[in-house]
Specification:
This protein has 535 residues and is α/β, with parallel strands linked by helices. The protein has helices at 37-48, 101-114, 160-172, 197-201, 228-240, 256-261, 291-307, 323-327, 329-337, 343-362, 371-374, 394-402, 412-415, 437-441, 452-457, 473-480, 483-493, 499-515; strands spanning 14-23, 30-32, 72-76, 85-89, 94-98, 132-140, 146-152, 177-181, 183-184, 187-188, 204-205, 209-212, 215-217, 222-223, 244-251, 312-316, 365-369, 387-390, 406-409, 458-465. Helices cover 33% and strands 18% of the residues. The chain is globular and about 75 Å long. The chain starts with 13 loop residues before the first strand and ends in a 20-residue tail after the last helix. The mean pLDDT is 95. The structure holds acetamide (ACM).
Length: 535
């Protein structure tokens, strides 16, 4: 048996190998110590998903002084860091101590990685295979509390089962946030009972841009949306896997799908075509910032947060072309009434109003792309509890942190997984750029040259999958993995990971992904069927 302790991904803080093996079998019970019922349940949930009838999900939460051999004992230890765990694997027992259910869940994910790759399958292929894990002591906790993944379901819609599978894969990598980009120019993906035209009109387009250079289009309708019940289900499924869903309803730009359904909300009405976009880019059609827009948005956020009672809500704020605000006399007057010096300042003011509404009505904290922060330079500041998602790089992340905002690092240079994975004509069409897996490994989310105060404001990091050129779940796998594995390693460690060490672990880890049916990009380049179609 290869030393599976050396293949753990993300790699734990401390691993001490010991001799012997623990047999995980049909007689293994998961037992909860005092007040550790939720932690034991979290362990059972992971082990119940194993393909063998081992480690049964037997709900035995009675504390026993003397346990049978082969049991897994789960205890609460409030002295451990949040999401942290201590795992002692002996030949007769496994002891898990965890600070919270997430820590216990991650201990069980570690156990799953210590089993043969078959543990990542949905059904056993060899009933007789010994399900043993090597004896060891492991101490572990994440460096970053926000270890996020962003999925754009607006440019291409991904059916609910694809999202659930994506969540499951994030959880196996100990990632804990799913930022769902639910609205954009090319699609609106949220059922609305108050404004059904949003999902009736905004959720589909007659055809889509296929390639960039030269620009070509397909001839196929594309669309889909999640019902509010679907969103509640996605949220519940994620919560069971210790993942917080962060829904994004983007304002005031990237709004063509909304405006196609609700044209009265457009700035400079009557001057532009208001249809769901069929090509990719940044468009001047944006929402008006007048009070009527806020009223409609309050209703829409209310529906969304009814389904996903999120504590963090992303409100967008990026790539906002403000020409239609300047062109609209109502909006110019409004800006002057508010004594704001510019449309950019009005942009900041508008984001603050939305954030105030979310805080007051729903107790939610807003998140913005970093333009939300940079647009405050000439006017209203952001609501102080707004979280800035810094995509333009670590310098704007530092400035936002120094200005006192909590920041999530999401820099294009290392975390944009819509970028190409190699400079090679065989790579499928992408948005451009280059981010190799080894580049992700070189990402240091918390720069040591920042002040201590600024470092403390950096609550985590996130990778982004924008889906202009990712039309289906197969391409989603290809663009996400194995870069997401490298990201998980970095986010857990809070610092860059040497590529040589990660590469060895990754080669072993790809066996797990393969067992789970993930169509990752092989380290030496795409399979023939993953290559770009000849132009
Ligand atoms: C972004 O990539 N426009 C946030």
């Amino acid at each position: 048996m290869p030393n599976r302790l050396a293949t753990l991904l993300p790699f734990p803080r401390l691993v001490r190998q010991q001799s012997g093996y623990f047999p995980l079998g049909a007689t293994t019970h998961v037992l909860a110590g005092p007040h550790a019922t939720r932690e034991a349940d979290a362990v059972r949930r992971v082990l119940a998903a194993l393909p063998w009838p081992s480690a049964n999900a037997n709900s035995n939460d009675i504390t026993k002084d003397i346990t049978n051999a082969n049991d897994i004992l789960v205890d609460l230890d409030a002295g451990l860091p949040a999401e942290g765990y201590r795992l002692r694997i002996g030949p007769d027992h496994v002891r898990i101590k965890a600070a919270d259910p997430a820590g216990a869940f991650y201990a069980a994910q570690t156990i799953r990685q210590l089993l043969p790759d078959e543990a990542w399958r949905a059904a056993p292929i060899d009933h007789a295979a010994p399900q043993t894990i090597p004896c060891a002591e492991i101490e572990d906790a994440p460096a970053l509390k926000w270890r996020g993944a962003h999925l754009d379901v607006a440019r291409h819609f991904f059916p609910k089962p694809v999202v659930l599978r994506f969540i499951d894969l994030l959880a196996r990598h100990k990632l804990n946030r799913l930022h769902l980009h639910l609205t954009d120019d090319q699609g609106w993906r949220i059922e609305s009972r108050g404004h059904p035209k949003l999902h009736e009109i905004g959720s589909h387009r007659p055809f889509s841009q296929l390639t960039r250079d030269p620009r070509t289009f397909d001839n196929k309708p594309h669309g889909g949306y999640y019902t509010l019940a679907d969103l509640a289900e996605i949220n519940g499924y994620a919560a069971e896997r210790m993942i917080t869903v962060v829904p994004e309803l983007e304002v005031p730009g990237h709004a063509r799908a909304l405006l196609a359904a609700l044209p009265d909300l457009a700035a400079a009405p009557g001057t532009r075509e208001l249809t769901v976009a069929t090509d990719w880019g940044i468009f001047p059609q944006i929402m008006s910032p007048l009070p009527g827009t806020l009223d409609v948005l309050a209703g829409l956020f209310g529906e969304l947060l009814g389904a996903i009672p999120a504590k963090y809500v992303h409100i967008g704020g990026d790539e906002c072309v403000l020409t239609d605000w300047e062109a609209d006399p109502r909006i110019r007057d409004y800006q002057h009434e508010l004594r704001l010096p510019s449309p950019v300042a009005l942009h900041a003011y508008f984001l603050r109003q939305v954030a105030d509404m979310l805080a007051t009505s729903f107790g939610a904290r807003s998140m913005v792309w970093d333009e939300g922060f940079t647009s405050t330079i000439t006017g209203t500041g952001l609501r102080p509890d707004t979280v800035v998602m810094a995509w333009h790089g670590m310098e704007v992340a530092r400035r936002a942190a120094e200005a006192g905002y909590d920041v999530v690092a999401a820099p294009t240079e290392w975390t944009y997984f819509d970028y190409s994975q190699a400079k090679d004509d065989r790579e499928p069409t992408s948005i451009g750029g280059l981010i190799r897996t080894e580049d992700v490994a070189a990402f240091s989310p918390v720069p040591r040259d920042w002040s201590q105060e600024a470092q403390a404001r950096l609550i985590g990091a996130q990778f982004q999958v924008w889906t202009e050129y990712i039309a289906d779940s197969r391409m989603l796998d290809y663009m996400t993995f194995p870069r997401a594995c490298a990201f998980a390693d970095v986010a857990w460690a809070g610092k860059a990971v040497p590529w040589a060490s990660l590469r060895d672990r990754l080669e072993a880890h790809l066996g797990r992904l393969a067992a789970a049916g993930v169509e990752y990009r092989p380290l030496n380049g795409p399979h023939p069927w993953q290559q770009r179609n000849p132009a």
